[in-house]
Amino acid sequence: MASMKTGSRSSWSGKWAFILAAAASAVGLGNMWRFPYLAAKYGGGTFLITYLVLVFTFGVSLLLLETAIGRKTGLSAIGAFRHFGKKFMFIGVLASVVPFIIVPYYCIIGGWVTKYAFAYIAAGPAAMADGGTFFSSFITDGVDSSIFMLIFMAAAFIIVARGVKGGIEKANLILMPALIVMAIAIAIFTLTLPGALDGAAYYLKPDLSKFSPELVIGALGQMFYSLSLAMGIMITYGSYLEKKASLTQSVTRIGCFDLGVSFLAGLMIVPAAFVAMGSGDAVAQNSGPSLMFIILPEVFADMGQVATIVGFVFFLLVFFAALTSAISLTETCVSIIQDGAGFSRRKSLVITVVFIVVAGLIINSGYNVLSFIQPLGEGSSLLDFADFISNSVIMPIVALLTCVFVGWIIKPKTIIDEVRISAPFKAAKAWSVMVKYVAPVLVVVILVTALAQSLG
Ligand code: PHE
Fold first, then answer.
1. Which residues line ligand 1 (CB under 6 A)?
2. What's the gap in Å between 20 CA and the centre of ligand 1?
3. What is the pLDDT of residue 449?
4. Dist. CA 350 → ligand 1 center (Å)
5. Which pLDDT value is given to residue 15?
């Protein structure tokens, strides 16, 4: 345990473990389900190019900023901000609230995915291809959906309980390569479906007439969520990182990894949905849960003998992606409690688990016993509300505060010096401009748009 920093704090066994863990946190439901839908909605190639540009400018800059704060201070979000002055601690507190809100509902969706993977084997592909009855009766059944949520949670908790090196690193080493192999296999397979190539063309060819401010804002919001930014995760992960690892190179790799998986997810889902619905616009209209939990099972069911296996592998793949993200969220909660309250890792884990289970059960009842609570208007659920508050409200605020904090209070130089400990930082100038000016403006735009949409 010579590489441990101080006391009982965890650390990665090396740079690659860090990159893999950050990539595992990034790659999740956002890539597998939200990205393909947005790509379909915003004209395929045009969205892809915009997203690519945003990831490698804005996204990677913020990843670098968060990782460097974590590594410099050796603390998770609250402690890291407090390190620079007590009055900045609130930024860390706000960031830390986000994983606590996300993880319970993330595990609910993880439970849906688990249920589907099981059902392909137990009930066969036809059971899920019934126009949405299977899905709605499952989520409105509070007992069944809670059980699958708990199964999913248990998988994540067991891995986190085994610690950073023994649990998280080992799990990522198996789950991430498996995920990539399955994603490539399914993408190749769906591209061989009759008519799929038209769908692939729709996905890949830029349709410039679809370029719009909305597209950019959609891509920005997606990028935040997908890269797990503005919620203290990358600060925590950076705090476990050794000084000799190159931060710029690491964050570029994380960006590539996340983008690559999103791209593959689009390649498997958009053409398949296109086959089922005949046009890109139809795919775009079936956003949200229905694309993955209703439309895709219908596409799979038409595949004949291979349907069971394709459906199972697909949901297993999504399960792995969701699981690694849930692990990173849980780990962040544990480390926040551990650093914030000074409890042991074990005690912090127990508190985290109790909280997640209780919150998960409550949010899940929003689909059944508590379905009369519709916080965002007719038909909305507690899960929608948790998602909205965390992603559309708190995260942009945290991102804004973080950029202003680094750009104008502690000054970019503090971070640049940290980055330069391990490697040259050629883009330091451009990065400063990004953090001081470009990022704050873009974030305000996302925030205002999200609020306007929810009110309008
Ligand atoms: N980035 C994950 C995804 O794309 C979601 C996530 C958000 C994971 C926050 C961890 C923390 O699904």
1. 25-26, 28-31, 102, 225-226, 228, 231, 233, 325, 328-329
2. 14
3. 82
4. 22
5. 84
Residue 349 and residue 347: Cα distance in Å, rounded? 5
The CA distance from 417 to 87, in Å, is 23
Cα(231)–Cα(349) distance, rounded to whole angstroms?
19
Is ipTM beyond 0.90? yes
Find the angle CA(120)-CA(24)-CA(77) to the nearest 5 degrees. 130
Over residues 301-309, mean pLDDT? 87
Whole-prediction pTM = 0.90
Give the C-alpha separation, 382 to 376, whole Å.
9
Please give the sequence-ordered ranges of beta strands (E in DSSP) within 389-436, or none if there are none.
none
**Partners of 89 in the beta sheet?**
none
Q: Calculate how far, in angstroms, residue 391's C-alpha sits from the geometric centre of ligand 1.
A: 10
The reported pLDDT for the residue numbered 43 is: 79
Strand partners for 44: 206
Of 246, 263, 255, give the one whose Cα is nearest residue 228: 255
Residues 6+ apart with CB under 8 A from 353: 153, 157
Distance 226 CA to ligand 1 centre (A): 5
Strand partners, 206: 44
CB atoms within 10 A of CB 59: 25
* pLDDT, greater one: 289 or 446: 446
d(CA 30, CA 226): 6
According to the CATH classification, is domain 15-455 in 1.10.4160.10?
Answer: yes
Q: Which of 294, 256, 282, 352 is nearest to 51 (CA)?
A: 256
pLDDT tens digits along 57-66: 989 999 999 9
Specify the length of the chain in residues: 456
Take atom 6 of ligand 1 and give the residue whose Cα is closest: 228
pLDDT tens for 374-424 read 988 888 889 888 888 887 788 889 999 999 999 999 999 999 999 999 899
Nearest atom in ligand 1 to the alpha carbon of residue 31 is 4
